[in-house]
Structures are given as C-alpha cells and as structure tokens.
Design goal:
With 84 residues, the chain is of the alpha+beta class. It has 2 helices and 4 strands, in the order αββββα.
C-alpha cells in the first residue's frame, strides 16, 4: 500500500522541534542552602519565602527529629556567624 499524504522528514522535524527537554533550574534555599526548585517549599527545612510552611519534624521518629533539630540549629548558628 502506498501512503497517500506522506510527510517529509523536514515536516516531521518541525513537528518534533518542541519535544526537547529543558534543563531544570535550581535555586538554593536561603535558610538551609539546599537546592530547591523555584516557587516550591524546601523539602529539607520546610520554608517558603522565609516562612515555615511545612512542619518537617512532624513525620519523623523521635531519634530522627533530634538529629534534624540539631542540624537546623547548627545551620542557623553558621548563618548568623557569616552575617557578622
């Protein structure tokens, strides 16, 4: 069987020109310096626009919660030292 309306390779290429993937743009969280997508809350510390939006410690076990609190406290002390 012969194709009635065959599309040329250039036509196929023009159609597929929008299928390329774009590189993800990451920002650093101002509080914990972890890479974060723009306009999303940080998964590490739960902040968005310098406000705590998500309670990250809520879902952790007691042992993990203590360790996470210690890490966050250390990051805050480093941040205050860097400002001085």
């Amino acid at each position: 069987m012969v194709i009635r309306m065959r599309s040329t390779s250039s036509h196929t290429g023009n159609r597929r020109s929008h299928h390329a993937l774009k590189k993800r743009q990451f920002l650093n969280c101002p509080k914990c310096k972890e890479p974060v997508l723009p306009h999303t809350a940080c998964r590490n510390c739960g902040t968005y626009k310098n406000r705590e939006v998500i309670d990250v410690l809520k879902k952790l076990t007691k042992k993990e919660r203590k360790q996470k609190e210690k890490e966050l406290k250390e990051q805050e002390t480093e941040k205050t030292k860097n400002k001085k």
